[in-house]
Design brief:
CATH architecture of the largest domain: 3-Layer(aba) Sandwich
Number of strands: 6
Distance between the termini: 46 Å
CATH superfamily of the largest domain: HUPs
Helix content: 55-70%
Radius of gyration: 26 Å
Strand order of the largest sheet: 1-2-3
Number of helices: 15
Bound molecules: iron/sulfur cluster
Largest sheet: 3 strands, parallel
Length: 404
């Protein structure tokens, strides 16, 4: 199958999935309307009020509930027909390529089949190639890989580095500027989106810290910021056809079981619409941590000094998912840099009456960091030294100097 037919089929998968989702939403609404109608019926039946006004109120509530149920039932029927039609359209379009399977029944399998071995072809066909970068080591290795591929395909101009800036209240100093320099080094565009107030404001508003089960911070501060950027990038293209967007994310399989299950390419049916077909690509899924550092070292790429200070990730200064020792080290680095984040978060904990993690408070982390004192035992290149050895670090520092 040629790539254009493949893209056309992927768009039919998108339409089918979106139609199914609309049907599911319509069914949920209808179920709620039934519950509301039943409640209105019971209220009327149970009412022993003789007062005309009260009875009239209950009757009118029941009529409104019945009306809503009828409307929602019609909407669910229409959504069902639309979902069925979208599924049939997809099946018909796929039939010439199919070996007897029914794609409507397993769109995930169809996507796997359509995407298999197509990443480089997709890069060539894409209209825009956003690269989501936190500025961390994985984002950096990913950017290098994407830029290498895009350059080989003559598509470097389509690459845009997108950074969700969580702000000074959450992140280490200099992250945004670092991402801008990383983009500049490759001569690609850089866009920063603000997540006003970052983690601190989110917790303050919610009165609770997020956790691994409710990771609102990543969805609200990072993922949700992406949609307006994609809209802007597609609008700028001014195309009279549907744009193809390949959106790159730097996750790695060895980081977690959930990430191991991620495919290299996936159709994003939430971000996609009639104006844009959005494909999410995970181009460094196969990379080990050592390979990430090798990419950085061998190419003299600039990374954030927080890694040299022994932090494993360039996350929020106080990441809700981090372990105790990591957090204490981060707080000790704050002492070195004169940052007041741990104190501010400890005050926030006291104010909202909710601790940072179930069994660990920032107040404890901060107290322990103060007991151990500021971090002083690190220098530039230590992260490479730790992962790849002394010689690799020396070569890296020379390359970095040459690239400056
Ligand atoms: S770095 Fe940690 S705290 Fe910050 S947004 Fe990500 S998961 Fe949440």
């Amino acid at each position: 199958m040629d790539i254009r037919s493949c893209l056309a089929l992927l768009d039919l998968v998108r339409l089918s999935e979106q139609a199914d989702r609309s049907f599911a939403t319509a069914c949920r609404r209808h179920a709620k309307a039934i519950t509301a109608r039943r409640a209105a019926e019971s209220a009327l039946a149970d009412s022993d009020s003789e007062e005309g006004k009260v009875r009239a109120g209950l009757v009118s509530r029941l009529e409104a509930a019945r009306r809503r149920q009828r409307e929602d039932s019609l909407k669910a029927q229409r959504a069902f027909l639309a979902a069925r039609a979208a599924g049939k359209r997809l099946s018909r379009a796929y039939a010439p390529y199919a070996a007897g399977s029914a794609p409507g029944a397993n769109r995930a399998a169809l996507c796997r089949e359509l995407f298999a071995g197509r990443l480089l072809e997709l890069i060539g066909q894409a209209d825009v190639l956003p690269v989501q970068s936190s500025g961390g080591k994985d984002s950096l290795a990913m950017l290098h890989r994407v830029v290498t591929w895009a350059r080989a395909a003559g598509c470097l101009h389509k690459v845009v580095v997108v950074h969700a800036d969580l702000g000074e209240s959450s992140e280490w100093p200099g992250v945004r500027e670092l991402v801008a320099r990383q983009a500049e080094r490759y001569g690609v565009r850089f866009i920063a989106v603000e997540a006003e107030g970052g983690l601190y404001r989110l917790v303050e508003k919610r009165g609770k810290f997020p956790d691994s089960k409710n990771r609102l911070c990543t969805s609200q501060l990072k993922r949700d910021r992406l949609a307006p950027v994609i809209t802007l990038l597609v609008q700028e293209l001014g195309l009279s056809r549907q744009a193809v967007v390949v959106n790159f994310m730097g996750i790695r399989a060895e980081e977690s079981a959930a990430r191991r299950r991620k495919p290299e390419l996936a159709l994003d049916t939430r971000l996609g619409n009639g104006n844009r077909l959005v494909v999410t690509a995970h181009p460094i899924l196969d990379m080990s941590e050592t390979e990430v550092w090798q990419t950085i070292a061998q190419n003299g790429l600039e990374y954030h000094p927080a890694y040299d200070a022994g932090l494993p990730r360039l996350s929020c200064i106080l990441c809700v998912l981090a372990g105790r020792e990591w957090l204490i080290r981060a707080a000790r680095l704050c002492l070195t840099l004169g940052l007041t984040h741990p104190q501010r978060y400890a005050d926030l904990e006291a104010r909202i009456g909710h601790t940072f993690q179930k069994k660990l408070s920032v107040a404890e982390i901060w107290a322990e960091a103060q007991r151990r004192g500021p971090l002083e035992d690190w220098e530039r290149g230590d992260a490479i030294r730790r992962h790849l050895g002394e010689e690799a670090a020396a070569q890296y520092l020379r390359r970095l100097e040459l690239a400056a």
